[in-house]
Write a structure and sequence with these properties.
Radius of gyration: 16 Å
Oligomer: single chain
Number of strands: 9
Structural class: alpha+beta
Largest sheet: 7 strands, mixed
Length: 170
């Protein structure tokens, strides 16, 4: 049974993501052209090394974020990081990943629900995310009710120019 919990030093360690499978084959991407999404063929593979998984684990433990993890019998199968400081009434989703073997099982949806509830408790009017432009990723966010942001956060848009800047009204 999957449980969504805030991650802390009692339920999460620097090794908690060692078995996390970030692997994803991407064939098509979206590009934002004239305000709309245009599908383009641009294949690549995304994966995390053990070193990268440990870096992510340290981010989760850093105290800089409100971190939620999806646990399956103690194993981390999903993570979501929220920046606690509001940006123009929006709480930023800095990271959201589900381990490959657990995708398409509702874990991402549960993590987003936890993020929405947390954001509302902090007085946020929306969630904001800078999303990898892989078709599967953007389709997921659209299915969650997200829309292309009409007010992108400059630093996020400049850091990842091919990301799609999205928001979810709460």
């Amino acid at each position: 049974m999957i449980k969504i919990e805030k991650a802390d030093r009692l339920n999460f360690t620097p090794e908690s993501l060692d078995d996390f499978d970030r692997f994803q084959i991407v064939n098509d991407m979206y590009r934002l052209i004239d305000g709309g999404l245009v599908r383009k063929n641009h294949p690549f593979t995304e994966t995390w090394s053990t070193e990268r998984r440990r870096e992510q684990a340290l981010e989760i433990l850093s105290g800089e974020y409100i971190a939620f993890c999806a646990f399956d019998d103690g194993k981390v199968v999903g993570e979501l990081l929220l920046v606690p400081k509001l940006n123009e009434g929006r709480m930023i989703v800095d990271s959201l990943h589900v381990s490959r073997e657990c995708r398409r099982k509702g874990i991402g949806r549960e993590l987003m629900e936890a993020a929405k509830n947390e954001a509302k408790e902090h007085g946020a009017k929306a969630l904001y995310m800078s999303c990898c432009s892989a078709v599967e990723t953007i389709d997921y966010y659209i299915a969650m009710g997200c829309k292309i942001s009409t007010n992108p956060i400059k630093s996020y848009a400049e850091e990842e120019p091919y990301d799609i800047q999205m928001e979810l009204e709460l």
